[in-house]
Amino acid sequence: MAHPFLVKDIAFQAGLSTATVDRVLNGRRGVRQQTVMRVNAAIRELERQQAGLEVQGRKFAVDVVMEAPERFTEAVRKAFESEAATFMPTVFRSRFHFAETMRPQDISQLLDRIRLRGTDGVVLKAPDVPEIAGAVARLEEAGVAVVTLVTDLPHSSRTAYAGADNRAAGETAAYLIGERFADRPATVLVTISSSRFRGEEEREIGFRRVLREKYPHIGVIEISEGHGRNEETGALALKAIGSHPEINAVYSIGGGNPAVLDAFRQLQRGCLLFVAHDLDEDNLDLLRRGLVQFVLHHDLKTDVRMAFHAVMERRGALCASEKRHLSAVEVITPYNLPRV
């Protein structure tokens, strides 16, 4: 497996020991296929990072750490790569550390390794738990800017939050559903990827508040811990819809939308209204096919731009901003899809 990288660099990128990486690179027996895939993915990521090193200008290294489904992390990667080009001749070298699920202690250890290795900033999407808040505090004490992305850690010492107003997004979803069912019964299946994420909790709080105040006749059935993945979310949805025949609408906070719709089909049930978040490839396809009616979306590039500015401010390359603004939430329908 030819490559120009040090074993320790591959190990750091992959989150594995140098001994394990050495076994993979030398084709030794007893290595799981999943481990081989992690090493290969780490090498590809290092190759992408290396491609930008020869560009002239002030350089900033930013580590992007995210626990999220692959469809969302790929959208984030594209936003970082696209937005970085607009800052030329300043160069942002983004190092991506993505996983669909991670234990809080693993995220905390990764953040500590990043701090010890050296970085100009960390962009973080992670659960709001004490272990991670502690790692954020250690980064900030070391002079590293930490920007939370799309879901906040409000009680941590992070530098800034980049994303939408999640509570307002939930309130918007409640308004869309409430007006649709203003004069008829409805029960909404609310899907949450994990209760550990503050952003999803804020969306649910806003959603329930507006229903309670404006549309008290609308019921809510919640499922959680599907982690936005189709298999787990689909199983939870199938059980909930089968147990509650009154469910006739969906507010998807946490993803796995194709599997949720498939659960309705398996049970031969109709979904009269489906409101989702984020204009990823799945939701774009579902909108075009008329299976999802509304997608609450905000521009990830705006979030990335804010994160880059926060890193530059911490390093003294920009004057500090007086106030950072949250990204605007757009209601996307099949009739106002942005051009790709």
UniProtKB/TrEMBL annotation:
Keywords: DNA-binding, Transcription, Transcription regulation. CDD domains: HTH_LacI (cd01392), PBP1_sugar_binding (cd06307). InterPro entries: HTH_LacI (IPR000843), Lambda_DNA-bd_dom_sf (IPR010982), Peripla_BP_I (IPR028082), SBP_2_dom (IPR025997). Gene3D superfamilies: 3.40.50.2300, lambda repressor-like DNA-binding domains. GO terms for molecular function: DNA-binding transcription factor activity; transcription cis-regulatory region binding. Residues 8-46 form the HTH lacI-type domain. It comes from the Bacteria. Pfam families: LacI, Peripla_BP_4. SMART domains: HTH_LACI (SM00354). This is LacI family transcriptional regulator. It comes from Rhizobium meliloti.
